[in-house]
Structure formats: structure tokens, C-alpha cells
Amino acid sequence: MADTDRKIILCSCEDTMALDPKVVGAGCKSQGIATARHLCRTELDRFRQSARDGKLTIACTQERALFEEVAEAERLAAELTFLNVRETGGWSSEGKAAAPKMAALVAAAHEVPEPHPVVTFESEGVTLICGRDRAAIEAAEQLKDKLDITVVLLPGSEVTPPRDALYPVRQGRVRMASGHLGAFAITLDAFAEPAASSRARLAFGKARDGAVSKCDIVIDLTGGTAMFAGADLREGYLRADPADPVAIQRALFKAADLVGTFDKPRYITFHDQLCAHARSKKVGCTRCLDLCPAGAITPHGNRVLIDPHVCGGCGQCAAACPTGAASYALPPADALVRKLRALLTAYRQAGGTRAQLLLHDATHGADLIDAAARFGDGLPACTLPVAVNETTQVGLEAVAAAFAYGATSLHFLTRAKPRHDIAGLRQTIATANTLLAALGFGTDLVTTIETDDPDVMIAALRATPGGIVAPRPAAFVPTGGKRDVLKTALRELHRAAPAPVDQIPLPKGAVFGTLDIRTAGCTLCLACVSACPTHALGDAQDRPRLTFDESLCVQCGLCQSTCPEKVISLVPRLDFKAFEAGSRTLKEEEPFCCIACGKAFGVKATVERITAKLEGKHWMFTGENKARLDLIRMCESCRVEHVVNAGLDPFAGPARPAARTSEDYFREREAREKSVASDPGDANAKEREQAMLDRIKRGEV
User: Is the preceding peptide bond at 500 cis, omega within 30 degrees of 0?
Assistant: First the structure.
């Protein structure tokens, strides 16, 4: 750890934790490690003394507010860092065996997260409550003094009219919904206003379709299908079961606070120039579109658009993006890998063995860990918890780096019923397990623990034996973009592997692979080169040549969909030698030289094949037009010059027949009648008649 001037205070929390400062110090190269028993109360002066200047880490988060208040009131100059080692490590049935984990947690806490951009919402409190019964009216009654309310009831709802018309009540059925907090647009069918004379129940007038309501907040109490995909991720959309009063109250309390200006993180950093979605109206990569549960991603020409206001931060697009166009910002991929590096390195230096990683979110996962520590045996001493914003944000680069740094297993803690589909995470796990098994680490080392029960979580962790520890643990520091971090992590994983192999077949959808090009059918048109977004496919300036750099291929499929000969197929695999191999030639042919100037301008085999197909078989290149074949054998400049000088129209067809009018037909009839009248018995009359008609057609008569 580079922060050698930082002081660390470990508190036993009234002797409820077993501390071993010597072991912690072995993993954390700090200026000094002190211990306390009751730092937040009877030993508060020790905090004051340590916080006079310099950097100070307090291994307690429960009393963070107290320590910050004291530091501010007394103008203490310390740079404070807080971390939780009690629920995550100290409160464990394994006692001092958890000391290496404490060292790891302290080291990881000093990896300061980078500031992230935010997205701003503006809400004036204009609220649409959609319901089916009296619950919608009761919700409006509670919120009418805080928000600007409109109630829309489903057709056929049996609702007694409110005593006072303090807010609009309408009828309607939601056909389409879009937007977010502060900017919703709801399209309603069967929209109607109530009759003022409604007595026992609301009666509505003539209905119409296509009414649009614009509002800041939507409260859905219909009990039907959610208006939005990934409804829990949509800011400003609150949904509750109309038969569940507790859920309704929870939604109303939240709605009452949604007035004003709000910020949320901009979860995804998007570089559209790296996007491999499409080229020239050919669709390639659709990974992010397929995985986004909130519908925040839409096609936009050759790129995709990510609406930051709609994005719920699941991170599956960033984890799956093969080029790094979409990357997670909370934290970036390299920052997460640096945290894993600090965690596992300190754990190993403090004497820890067989590290087991548990990646969890800050709500559901943290609650389970707290419950296990307070009411059970706590996490195993070898289990290192890592909090992330969403478990689905973690990509292959973090998993590969973890095992390269020395982890023996890795688990993603999710809800028993995840809030959104975790297909992207399952794809990452499948790819990671394929790699780890092929490299000799073991099988099924990366798993999900899908539970809401802390005892089930602990049982799953204790039942996992883990794989083989990397014989040569890595120590690399990740730098660069997401794709760079991924390639570095994979190279280091291969170097640290127990049984390294050079090539590993990967499941479909992987972001590494090669191309199977049937070169016999390839015409070297190079359409695939212009379509490739990562420049994995290339050409040469001086001759017809197709090259391929496997390390740059992201298996987007654009070359496959663009190829006019349909001779390209994707082959998912990871070839570690390809990282250093550079480009290789897939096909090369002799160039064709212009017959006029000698310039090389095309593929010899292709030009000769086209010439052979056209010669004598197409009207443009037969008879007196046969000389036009030379145009095919000329470069673009000579071709234009020859056409202009010779006065050729390369698009001209055969001479068109003369236009025929009514007068032509009248003359033909007159000539036919004269011919027959002159000699009715002449055997050659028919021939003379036809000859006359031919002369007329040629314009000779």
C-alpha cells in the first residue's frame, strides 16, 4: 500500500472483536496501527489526538457521523477514511483468524473512488395516479396538499365521487408510457371526463383514444402489468399493489419527497466512436440492446443511444460491451480491479490463504452480511466481501484479475428474485468458468448465491472448496480503458495459471474470437475491412491483401453480415498468443495492372473472371461493342479518359426502333391494298407486300 504515512485505528468495540494489529500491519504498510476498546466514547480523546494532522483511517462506520462532527467542530485537519471491519470481519466465530481479512479490508478502503458525473432531474410535483378502485382516491387525498394531483381510473372502476373536486379525476387506460422523473408522457385510451351529476359512483362521458398526459411523477396503483420494463429502475415511477396498504404508503412517502432538483450518478460512460452496433445499415453487435432491462438503450444509425435519465445503473451493457464503448463509471473497470489488487495482495501479505471473494451490492448484500454477523457466526475468515453498486456491473476483466491476484473462488450475492434479469451476469460467469477450467484452476469457481437468507448465504460460502491458488500470483496495476484492462487481466491470468494453454474455445457471445473465412470464395472486395469497427480486419496499400488481428476482434458480426459472398463465420475463442502475434494474412492475390498506364488497381483473378463471364455473353460486349471489354481492364482514370476521347456511352443500349404513329399504320394498309389490287393472282404478292412493309418501317417510303 502506497499510503505509508496513514495512521490506522482498530477498535475492538468493547472487546466484541479479536484484534491482531501485528497481522494487520503485515498487510498494511502504514505509519502505525493503534488499537482501542471504546474509541467513540471513553477514548474519544485518542481520536482527537490522532486527528490533529495527517491521514487517519478509522475502522468503524457506525459512529462516522460522531467522528466527523468532532473533527469539524474542533477543526481537526486529518483526512479521514472510514471502513467497516466489524460486521464484515471482526464479528466472526473464527476470532483472530479473520485478522488477514481485516488487513485486506483496510488496504482496499484506501483505494479512493474517483468522482463520477451526475444526471440532473427537475420535478415540480405534477403527479398522475393511475388506479382501479378507491385506493387511488385515498392516495390522492393524502398527497393533494403536497403535489399537483390528477387521478386516472380504469374503465369500469366502481368509485364513489370525492366530496370536493380538489383535483381532476378522469377515466383512461394506459396505452403507452415513456420518460422519467420530471418528464413523463403517458398516452391514454378510453379517456373521458366525469359527469358532474355522478352520485353513487363516478359516471364518465364520451370516451376518446390517444389523450396524452405529461407529468413529473407516476404512481401506478392499477395492480396490472408495469408501464415500464425494469420498473424498479425508473426514476419517478412508483408502483404498489392496491391491495397492500403498506406498499401504498411506502410509495406515497417517496412521492411526497420528489419535488425539486435531484441528482443521480451517470452510471455509464459512452464513447460512440467505439460502438460496433452497425455499419452501412448492417447490424452487428446488439449485446447492450439485448441486456438492458430498463429500455434505456436504443439504436441510432450506426451507434446506440443511452439515455442517462432512464438508465438504472445495472451495468450489464458495460460488462458485455466488447469494445469498451460503454463502460461503468461507479467505479470504472480499472478502479475496481485496483481495489481487488489491494484487497488480495494485503490478504496474502498478512498470511491469509485460499481467498474467497463475495461481491455484493450496498443494500441487499450488506443487509445479509450484517444479519449474519449479528445473529450468526459471521462471514468465514477467508471470505473477502467487496461492495459494488450492482453485481451485474462486474465484467470478465474483474473476474480474471481476481484469480490472477490469487483468489480461489468468487461469488455474486443476489436477491432470490432479482429486480431485473441477470442474463448478462450469467454470460460473464459462463465465460469465466470456461477459462478457469481450461487453465487448470478448477471447475465452477464463479457462482451466484441467490438468496434473501443470511444462513443460506453462509452455508453456500462454507460449502465451496475453491480451486487451485495461482502458483505465481500477479501484481499488475491496471491502466487504460475497459478493453485494455480486460486484455491485460487475461494475459496475467494465463501467466499465473496452474496449467496454461494457448487456445480456449469460448461459448457463443464471447467478446474474443477468430474468423473462419473460406478463402476460395473470397473475392477480396474488402467490404469486411470497411465494416470492421476495431480494425481487426485490414488491407494493404500496394496489393490485394486481407489481414486479420485476432486480438482486436470483438465478434460483433459486422464482417459476417457485410460480406457479399457469405464466406465469413465467427469462431468464439481466446488465443493468448494472438495478443502478441499482430496481424496475419488471410488471403493475398496478384494485382491486375491497367492495360493503358500499368497502374495496379484490382485483383487479377477477379478482373479476368469478370471479363470471361461478359465476353460474348452480354449485348454490351458483343459484336461491334466487344472493344468495350478494354474498359474493364483499365483503371478508373484511364477508363474515364478513354470513354471521353472515344465518345462512348458505356450505358447506351442497342438502337431503338423508330417511333410508330397512326400515319405509319395507314400507309402500311394502303400499300397492302395496292399490292393486292395490282395483281391478285400473283404468287409473289405476299413477298412484295412484306418487302414494302419493311421499307416503310425503315423509313425508306
Answer: no
678 burial via Cβ count (<10 Å: 0-12, 13-18, 19+): exposed
Query: Are the C-beta atoms of 445 and 497 separated by less than 8 Å?
Result: no
Reported as a single tens digit per residue, the pLDDT across 604-661 is: 888 888 888 888 777 777 766 777 888 889 998 998 888 888 877 766 666 677 777 8
Cβ partners under 8 Å of residue 116, min gap 6 = 265, 266, 329, 330, 331
Find out whether 240 and 250 touch, Cβ atoms under 8 Å. yes
DSSP code per residue over 220-275: EES-SS-SSTTGGGSTTEEE--TT-HHHHHHHHHHHHT--EEEEEE--EEE-GGG-
The DSSP bridge partners found for residue 299 are 304
Residues 211 and 175: beta-carbon distance below 8 Å: no
Contact status, residue 588 vs residue 539, Cβ threshold 8 Å: no
418 shares its domain with 474: yes
Residue 421: closest CA among 235, 231, 284, 222: 231
CA distance 356 to 361: 17
Integer CA distances (angstroms), 613 to 452, 544, 618, in order: 70, 21, 9
- Per-residue model confidence as pLDDT tens digits over 344-399: 999 999 999 999 999 999 999 999 999 999 999 999 999 999 999 999 999 999 99
Q: Which domain holds residue 411?
A: 333-501
Q: By the 8 A CB rule, do 526 and 539 touch?
A: yes
- Claim to verify: residue 523 and residue 455 sit in the same structural domain: no
Domain end, chosen from 501, 523, 551, is at: 501
For residue 369 the three cell numbers come to 452480511
Q: How far apart are CA 538 and CA 549, in angstroms?
A: 8
The 10 Å Cβ neighbour count of residue 646 is: 11
Q: Are 614 and 626 in contact (CB under 8 A)?
A: no
pTM passes above 0.90? no
Identify the bridge partners of residue 80 per DSSP, sorted by sequence position.
Answer: 56
The alpha carbon of residue 333 and the mean position of all alpha carbons in its chain are separated, in whole angstroms, by: 14
pLDDT of residue 604: 84
CATH number of the domain bearing residue 167: 3.50.50
Strand partners, 421: none
Question: Are residue 257 and residue 125 in the same domain, yes or no?
Answer: yes
